[in-house]
Design brief:
With 881 residues, the protein is of the alpha/beta class. Helix content is 47%, strand content 17%. The chain contains 35 helices and 31 strands. The strands form six sheets. The chain has an eight-stranded mixed sheet. Strands 24-25-26-27-28-29-30-31 form an eight-stranded parallel β-barrel, surrounded by eight helices. Helix 28 (711-732) runs parallel beside helix 30 (753-759). It is elongated and about 105 Å long. The relative contact order is 0.06. The chain binds adenosine-5'-diphosphate and magnesium ion (2 copies). The site of adenosine-5'-diphosphate has 17 residues, from strand 3, strand 5, strand 9 and strand 10.
């Protein structure tokens, strides 16, 4: 139905996530599979979008629809709004399509007013509870819906406790709370110049509006940006009848994961608090109990809960994150969703679910976000260094990983430290959504309060960031910026280290090493390799990088940049002499010095890669990048070359260009100085002959010429190179197979690829330059303005990060078609940064490239993305974010 905007929980299902939001769809699903869910209804995301179209108002027919559903809930529960005997109270809960923890605000106990509070006291026989709920409601409603600062209420509460000489909220009696309610209402009047709304329907409308508006609050916007969630989805609103976890010792509230979200262990993991409501557990107000302790306190409820968690996991075929409340020993489920987990846990859970026959390998592969793998590849503390390190405290192992950094106590200080290039640890009493940017910038997070499901823990795990939470042995003084622990003081700017898997805090910095990639990770990656068609190579310039990439599964080198070898301290003088030479003779002399070094590099790289193919790119950057710029350096170079300082300085100035990226670089250098490419080619081929002699018969170097725009350039350079190769063959009286190909990175080359392919045996798309030249965005300058494009919504992502499939991709598509027309079996690859970015990898798969090439650490990511591309084509599995 087109104008149906409200769905009762009976009417929805888990498939209706985009309309009902994640929370609403799952509340409906749980209701319909017979789990105990307090009745309620969902106002759709479509209504949220309509709300913005209507100038942020709730239109009359929507209000009628809401009233109709409310009447249904009243009837089911035999309770009524404002009733003096048995009042209906509801929660108003936001629920976006993708879960956004802590980003949107929930209001509890709505419907309380001066009348209903008496009704609540009567129906529960607990006046204290009723007034406690009322004061909580006024505060929450004022804060969330009316933007009245929380502190206005909190300070009154503190004052009241002080006057009574008590410590805990629970020590206040019903008379105190009654008085507090009156004070709270006065605050409301002062702030809003009208009475606290007594009409529940008015309360409800204001609350719904506030949830809709919170879709666009800054925290929510940042979270969406960080997680690539579109801004135009809108949020649903769930209105649900209240159950009370704060009714006494037989009540409580909690959250649990069906498996361990840090390592995936198949064991219930969670926490609860007796006599508490709503956010108390998540907010880390008191330190909660472990879920297993519920067994001793309420065995019946515990076993009921365990059954429900099993049912949910089987039903959803995934690890669930469940919120529940117990009201007088009656269990209610309030939320379920796919649990956020670390990459380590994600792999273990996916592999276990396949082994338990709950999901297929394809589904398991689709469950892992390729970028998440990054977390598994990064270094851990070196065991010996760790054993020697000084432990200062133990907290909860909230999110695994190893982090060292200088401590800072405020998010903005961490952000500033990052800008200075420092590694830092964010230390807080407890975190809140305002700290998000600091959490992103930090190496790790340490909090003194809060449990395993506190804000810090949940968000850190989602980000794959190391976190130690609830470290109660330390005292965090945010104002004077120190940690106090036992007799020690650690000041802002001093180093600590965190082990997020053990929850340990160390003093100082600890060195790190590579983790082992075995067990379930290995098993999972074998499945990945069974599915993918695209090969994955690596961009590597050194034997060390090459070896690392092989460990990560690289099947070859797609780009070996020879210039990186030139920057070596021992070589740069020869490189510089080569550049500033004014005669061919001088230049050749310098090149002769470089030849054995380059030959050794290539030999070692071939060795590291074994039988795998290696593409070497000949010199690409503008020459003056290698030259000294300070007078001191110029002087010493002049001396070593035995020429006058002034002459050298002039020569260097001659070489400067206005627009070096479009200047004398790439194949253009070889047009002027063919001897440079000849030397490099000689090194490539001689090294190949050497390694062939040592037994590696299959060696097949691929020589790649950069920055070709016109086939005539390629013809010229190729002729020079081939002459040199023939020379080497004759000198050595031996041969190897080789390929000569080109980068496709100048738009003209892409659209004349049929001509280029007459000379080139392979193409490798240099999508960094292709994007630069295709868009006309200078790569070195675009950073300054592309962020504005992103913040103004003109670009979702910088085209240097995520390949622009429409335009730059079109150039690639044209080049592939034309290239194949000339040379049906032409080898095709990509070596720009995009080769390791999942959506771009998928595009390369569809384009029919043979391989993608990316930095070593992205190789597993590209392998997974390539497998997902195949699975997406064959079956329609959707990824649950
Ligand atoms: P979030 O999206 O931030 O998790 P929720 O809407 O899930 O917010 O609400 C937070 C908590 O409030 C829930 O976990 C639950 O404990 C409590 N809550 C929400 N609605 C109800 C309700 N109808 N009855 C009792 N508690 C509720
Ligand atoms: Mg929740
Ligand atoms: Mg380039």
């Amino acid at each position: 139905m087109d104008n149906k905007f409200v769905y009762s929980f009976h009417e929805g299902s888990k498939e209706m996530k985009s309309l009902l939001g994640g929370k609403g769809a799952n509340l409906a699903e749980m209701t319909n599979i017979g789990l105990p869910v307090p009745p309620g209804f969902t106002i759709t995301t479509k209504a949220c979008i309509n709300f913005y179209d209507e100038g942020k108002t709730l239109w009359p027919s929507l209000i009628d629809e809401i009233k109709l559903h409310l009447a249904e809930v009243e009837k089911t529960l035999n309770k009524r709004f404002s009733d003096e005997e048995n009042p209906l109270l509801v929660s108003v809960r936001s629920g976006a399509v993708f879960s956004m923890p802590g980003m949107m605000d929930t209001i509890l106990n709505l419907g309380l007013n001066d009348k209903a509070v008496k009704g609540l006291a009567k129906s529960t026989g607990n006046e204290r509870f009723a007034y406690d709920s009322y004061r909580r409601f006024i505060q929450m409603f004022s804060d969330v819906a009316m933007e009245i600062p929380k502190v206005r209420f909190e300070s009154l509460l503190e004052e009241m406790k002080e006057n009574k000489g008590v410590h805990n909220d629970t020590d206040l009696d019903s008379e105190d709370l009654k008085a507090l309610v009156e004070m709270y209402k006065k605050v409301y009047f002062e702030e809003k110049h009208e009475e606290f709304p007594q009409d529940p329907m008015k309360q409800l409308e204001l609350a719904i509006k506030a949830v809709f508006e919170s879709w666009n609050n800054p925290r929510a916007m940042i979270y969406r940006k960080l997680n690539d969630i579109p801004h135009d989805l809108g949020t649903a609103v769930n209105v649900q009848s209240m159950v009370f976890g704060n009714m006494g010792d037989k009540s409580g509230t909690g959250v649990a994961f069906t498996r361990n979200p840090a390592d995936g262990e198949n064991k219930l993991f969670g926490e609860f608090l007796i006599n508490a409501q709503g956010e108390d557990v998540v907010a880390g107000i008191r330190t909660p109990n472990e879920i297993s302790e519920l067994k001793d306190i309420m065995p019946e409820v515990y076993s009921q809960f365990v059954d429900a968690t099993k049912k949910l996991e089987h039903h959803y075929k995934d690890m669930q994150d469940i919120e529940f409340t117990i009201e007088n020993e009656r269990l209610f489920l309030l939320q379920t969703r796919a649990g956020k987990r670390t990459a380590h846990a994600a792999i273990n859970v996916a592999v276990d679910l396949v082994d338990e026959n709950l999901i297929s390998k394809e589904e398991a592969i689709m469950r892992i976000e390729p970028n998440q793998l990054d977390q598994l590849l990064h270094p851990m503390f070196e065991p010996k260094a760790l054993a020697d390190a000084q432990i200062i405290a133990k907290g909860l192992p909230a999110s695994p990983g190893a982090a060292s950094g200088k401590i800072y106590f405020h998010a903005e200080d961490v952000v500033a430290a990052k800008a200075r290039g420092e590694k830092s640890i964010l230390v807080r009493q407890e975190t809140s959504p305002e700290d998000i940017e600091g959490m992103v910038a930090a190496e790790g997070i340490l909090t003194a309060r809060g449990g395993m499901t506190s804000h810090a823990a949940v968000v850190a795990r989602g980000m794959g960031k190391c976190c130690v939470a609830g470290c109660s042995e330390i005292r965090v003084d945010e104002a004077s910026k120190v940690i106090k622990v036992k007799n020690e003081i650690i000041k802002e700017g001093e180093f600590i280290s965190l082990d997020g898997s053990a929850g340990t805090v160390y003093r100082g910095e600890i060195i790190k090493i590579q983790p082992e990639l075995s067990g379930n990770f290995e098993k999972f990656m074998t499945w990945v390799d069974e599915f993918r068609r695209l090969k994955v190579r690596t961009n590597a310039d050194t034997p060390k990088d090459a070896a690392q990439a092989v460990v990560f599964g690289a099947e070859g080198i797609g780009l070996c940049r020879t210039e990186h070898m030139f920057f070596d301290e021992k070589r740069i003088p020869a490189v510089r002499r080569m550049i500033v030479s004014t005669t061919l003779e001088e230049r050749k002399k310098a090149l002769d010095e470089l030849l054995p070094m380059q030959r050794k590099d290539f030999y070692e790289i071939y060795e590291a890669m074994g039988e795998r193919p290696v593409t070497v790119r000949l010199l690409d950057p503008p020459l003056h990048e290698f030259l000294p710029h300070g007078d001191e350096d110029i002087k010493s170079l002049a001396e070593s070359m035995n020429i006058a300082f002034e002459d050298l300085k002039d020569r260097i100035e001659d070489l400067a260009e206005f627009n070096p990226m479009l200047g004398h670089r790439g194949c253009r250098l070889a047009v002027t100085y063919p001897e440079i490419y000849r030397m490099q080619t000689r090194a490539i081929i001689e090294a190949a002959l050497d390694i062939k002699k040592s037994g590696m018969e299959s060696i097949l170097p691929e020589i790649m010429i950069p920055l070709i725009g016109d086939v005539v350039e390629l013809k010229y350079v190729k002729k020079e190179i081939e002459e040199e190769i023939q020379l080497v063959f004759e000198e050595r009286n031996d041969k190897v197979n080789y390929l000569i190909g080109t980068m496709i990175e100048v738009p003209r080359a892409a659209i004349t690829a049929d001509e280029i392919a007459t000379e080139a045996e392979f193409f490798s798309f240099g999508t960094n330059d292709l994007t630069q030249m295709g868009y006309g965005f200078s790569r070195d300058d675009a950073g300054k303005f592309l962020s504005d494009y992103e913040s103004k919504g003109i670009f979702e992502k910088s085209p240097f990060e995520v390949l622009d499939q429409k335009g730059i991709g079109k150039l690639m598509e044209i080049a592939v078609d034309l290239g194949k027309k000339t040379r049906a079996n032409i080898k095709l690859g990509i070596c720009g940064e995009h080769g390791g970015e999942p959506s771009s990898v998928e595009f390369c798969h569809r384009l029919g490239l043979d391989y993608v090439s990316c930095s070593p650490y992205r190789v597993p990511i590209a392998r997974l993305a390539a497998a997902q591309a195949v699975i997406k084509e064959s079956v329609n599995v959707t990824r649950d974010k």
